[in-house]
Automatic annotation (TrEMBL), chains A, B:
This is Prephenate dehydrogenase. Belongs to the prephenate/arogenate dehydrogenase family. Pfam families: PDH_C (PF20463), PDH_N (PF02153). It comes from the Bacteria. PROSITE patterns: PDH_ADH. One of its GO terms (biological process) is tyrosine biosynthetic process.
Length: 314, 314
């Protein structure tokens, strides 16, 4: 099928390349003329407007950041193809789409990225093996549209994870947004302590890596998911305060141990080892249960999908 | 000179190998007979007791964890050589040595490690380029002894950082102990949320890596440095609460930005680029100032040392 990709930065550009490599007919668009030229120079057909790219495309993928999304959604009023996006927060996108009445929309979020950005950094293998959340809202998402995208993205090598927008947002606050805030305050510690900076080794290097992200990006990501981020932040602050309390014990080195066990077990067991592939019905409840159990779709068949889930999963 | 290394785990074993490779006469000892056999099989002379190893050695390096240190310090009563250690907390060691009246002691802490442990994991290059804190207490540490160790460890490729025990403990709470606690609560988040675990990517992987450390090791490390850890933990909890407050703003994505700048700048500037080598007096105030400015000793001369410090350092 013909697919339009609007927004050709790291994610959109990589999606254009990956879909092309998977044998699909693609057309790109970017608001920046220089980016359009770069994509053309790389051999891709590029339209001069979103309307031109979408026209005649069965699917339009929006590879733009959250702040730009409302405008593109508005421009797509009347478009009868399928629309998806790649932004890192899904509840606000769901609300946006509801408000604007986009005909056929399935929100997505590939858990891929790297330190660099822009079309020049894009690569066709960026999504190989990466988890790609596809939002599935009971009574709202069209299952056929969902399966179309699941087939497309598993065909590019992604692990497609079914989840509601709310489930997605709660999960990413834990594994991405709050980790960014933690990394930031840890990194700031050395700003007035050069001795500490000189002693920083592995635990500091890894624990602070994402603190170097542009503050505007981290703030937009956390700001778009603020209620989940706040809830998780307060829960973790409570756990850290319990740890601090344990350090007041007569034997702090013993008292602290139980507070560290859950994290050690969880991290040692991560990433989960998948069990054997299993076929499950291509139905909303079965798919959402798969996502909640830590599993994902590896391919889409006729009325069923092939799924993997953690070996010791529940 | 002849050097005894007592305790032949990852750090002690690596120290034995590194000193041997640097051309020193070494003798090892470990309380565990199997470890003694392993070190002998690797070609090293190994004594059957601490006393036998120390006897005739000008320096005895204690490569044992904190809980075992008091016993070895007691056994070394009457030893007239120089003694050093490698434990990760220095205030309690200083107090221990004061209480037992060890003749000549300079505490040390190489900022090196890896996931594996034991003599089998030891390697001669473990300390190459690593920061090695050597404690320098004004009016207490013998400068000649300090310089002897600084010459020895810089000769093995380490960056020797002068600091008081208190300065060391405050710094490592920031760059190691608190990061371990943060990693632990971040990792524990996925223990009852398989979906979050399936979505975890780079920021989760790096931000939680050290959570997999054995809880007893992390607890002993933090417990031995509890006042510094608690102080820093409370300071960072305060910053996280400010971030949560910023997320309540009308435009949370803008309000959060200033809270992320310090961390982003600090992490982007880390590790510091050293300036040109400079010669400074081998004197306590000059050495401590070097450490406080984020610098380190690269070689020891006659009455002076060669030092590097961050290019933009203060």
């Amino acid at each position: 099928m013909r697919i339009a990709v609007a927004g050709l930065g790291l994610i959109g550009g990589s999606l254009l390349r990956a879909l092309d490599a998977a044998g699909h007919e693609v057309v790109g668009f970017d608001a920046d003329p220089a980016t359009r030229d770069a994509a053309r120079a790389a051999g891709f057909p590029v339209a001069e407007s979103l309307a031109e790219a979408a026209s005649g495309s069965e699917l339009t993928a929006l590879g733009v950041p959250m702040p730009v999304l409302p405008q593109l959604i508005t421009e797509l009023a009347g478009y009868d193809g399928l629309v998806t996006d790649v932004t890192s927060v899904k509840g606000p996108v769901r609300d946006l789409v509801r408000a604007h009445g986009v005909g056929r929309f399935v929100g997505g979020h590939p858990m891929a990225g790297k330190e660099t950005s822009g079309f020049a950094a894009s690569e066709k293998d960026l999504f190989d093996g990466c988890a790609w959340v596809l939002c599935l809202e009971p009574g709202e998402t069209d299952l056929g549209d969902w399966l179309t995208l699941a087939r497309l993205f598993t065909g590019m090598g992604a692990r497609v994870v079914p989840a509601t927008a709310d489930e997605h947002d709660a999960a990413v606050s834990k594994i991405s947004h709050v980790p960014h805030l933690f990394a930031s305050v840890l990194a700031a510690q050395i700003s007035d302590d050069p001795l500490a900076g000189a002693l920083g080794a592995g635990s500091f290097r890894d624990g602070t890596r994402v603190a170097a992200t542009r503050p505007e990006l981290t703030a937009a990501m956390c700001g778009g998911n603020r209620r989940s981020v706040q809830r998780e932040l307060h829960r973790l602050i409570g756990l850290l305060e319990e740890m601090s309390g344990a350090l007041d014990a007569d034997d702090p080195g013993t008292a602290l141990v139980p507070h560290l066990r859950l994290g050690a077990q969880a991290r040692q067991a991560w990433p989960a080892t998948p069990g054997e592939p299993a076929t499950i019905p291509a139905a909303v409840p079965a798919l959402l249960e798969l996502g909640r159990s830590g599993g994902w779709v590896t391919s889409v068949g006729d009325g069923e999908v092939v799924a993997l889930r953690p070996e010791s999963g529940r």
